[in-house]
Amino acid sequence: MSPKVAEKVAFHVLRAMAAFIVLVLIIVLWDLFSKGFPALTWEFITENPRKGMTEGGIFPAIVGTFYLVLATILFALPIGVMTAVYLVEYARESWATRIIRLAVVNLAGVPSVVFGLFGLGFFVLFLDFGVSILSGSLTLALMILPVIITTSEEALRAVPNGYREASLALGATKLQTILFIVLPNAMPGILTGSILGVARAAGETAPILLTAAAFFLPRLPDSVFDQVMALPYHLYVIATQVPNADPKIPYGTAAVLMILVLGLNLAAVLLRSYFRRMRRV
């Protein structure tokens, strides 16, 4: 086979693989939304579950997911970004930094149910936070920290060193250079990675199953030490523990969860585009 023919074959094979991924996504979304959209009424979004969750809506689960996602961002974003700033801007290459990076990489490969088990043992039992929003959000924050640290590191390294050298040459301190030169230029990559990490946390069931989620609650949580209903766990419960539920309810719950995750992904894309435009001005 000549090199030109081999190149054409490779091109078409790679394009077919990429098209296959898109096709799978379209089939999944079509199946989910075609069965879930009939359930998406105003009552379904704003009412509490009734009659053993065979009727009613999913409002407490939507609010609970929002609480968990918000608290996870508050815990994970500052710690992840500051760790990345330390590794890129301050730490010298040594055995210690290599161990930190190896730990981050390995932490990213830990199954989510293991994070849930750790959260149960450490946050729920040892620190006595109980099964609560606080325990669940801390567990989710630990789970997405590797994603935030890794993407933030890459974003910081992508900032040209000339920017740092010019800032220091004009008399700025290292901290001022990081705050006003490096971080604004790295912000698109940092936010994109962070939001994608949060989107993953919003859809996880195993960590909150052991640390935060409740089967059913008659009211909304009042503090971070209360249990909470959440969309992923609610979907799991309806699909496995409520056999007489209308099929529209689990599909409607899944559709709301997918809209939430896709909305976070869209927000990441829009924020990245916005900061890129701001940087060009």
From TrEMBL:
The chain crosses the membrane at residues 12-33, 58-87, 99-127, 133-156, 177-199, 249-271. Residues 62-270 form the ABC transmembrane type-1 domain. Keywords: Cell membrane, Membrane, Transmembrane, Transmembrane helix, Transport. It is a multi-pass membrane protein. It holds the Pfam family BPD_transp_1. CDD domains: TM_PBP2. One of its GO terms (molecular function) is phosphate transmembrane transporter activity. Belongs to the binding-protein-dependent transport system permease family. CysTW subfamily. This is Phosphate transport system permease protein PstA. The lineage of its organism: Bacteria, Bacillati, Bacillota, Clostridia, Eubacteriales. The gene is pstA.
